[in-house]
């Protein structure tokens, strides 16, 4: 149990010290991937139905961050609805997107969500007798503090995500990034931090070029 508490404290400190609850755990980049632009990017969340609000928030925030970078980006949920790609073949799905002018797809996948439970032990505070016995309130407060504070169980949520950037024209994966979100205060905060982190990673790793507002032609 002590190891779990130590891990939790260290993890929480790392996230807080970075000013965010989301951190990158691993990335992969195609060897021949080069900085480029897209005419039109579809942001597609692959999240179970029970988490529809998470999907909407995640897509919308990532769309907004891509637009700030100068890209024509759209939410799959808003553009096509929740069931638009069900029962389609790969060819049919690609054609559906290409016919709407999309040449890039950025996916958001919730790989796992874990509810971790840990035990916070009680404590006993001892103060020597001579420091509290001469005054009533000192005696009362010290004895009160000496009473064992009972331990209790608490929990926190971990979200594990993956986002992939695809070139639809070449039908090719260009970049993959895995992240972990530690106990976000809200779904809005989770989506906001995730979108910023993903777009920053795409630019930093020379996958996307910042362009003027309104989009640019693909290279």
Automatic annotation (TrEMBL):
* Signal peptide range: 1-23
Q: Which UniProt keywords apply?
A: Signal
Q: Which domain of life is it from?
A: Bacteria
The entry's protein name is DUF4136 domain-containing protein
Native organism is Flavisolibacter ginsengisoli DSM 18119
């Amino acid at each position: 149990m002590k190891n779990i508490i130590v891990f939790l404290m260290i993890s929480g400190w790392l996230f807080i010290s970075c000013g965010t609850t989301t951190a990158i755990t691993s990335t992969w980049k195609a060897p021949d991937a080069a900085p480029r632009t897209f005419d039109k990017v579809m942001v597609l969340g692959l999240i179970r139905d029970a988490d529809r609000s998470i999907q909407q928030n995640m897509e919308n925030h990532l769309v907004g961050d891509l637009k700030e970078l100068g890209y024509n980006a759209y939410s799959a949920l808003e553009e096509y609805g929740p069931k638009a790609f069900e029962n389609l073949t790969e060819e049919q799905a690609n054609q559906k997107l290409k016919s709407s002018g999309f040449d890039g797809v950025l996916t958001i996948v919730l790989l796992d969500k874990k509810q971790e439970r840990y035990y916070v032990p009680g404590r006993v505070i001892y103060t020597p007798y001579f420091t509290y016995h001469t005054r009533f309130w000192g005696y009362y407060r010290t004895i009160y503090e000496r009473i064992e504070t009972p331990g209790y169980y608490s929990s926190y949520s971990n979200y594990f995500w993956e986002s992939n950037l695809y070139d639809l024209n070449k039908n090719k994966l260009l970049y993959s990034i895995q992240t972990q979100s530690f106990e976000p205060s809200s779904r809005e905060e989770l989506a906001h931090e995730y979108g910023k982190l993903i777009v920053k990673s795409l630019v930093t790793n020379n996958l996307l070029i910042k362009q003027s507002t309104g989009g640019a032609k693909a290279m």
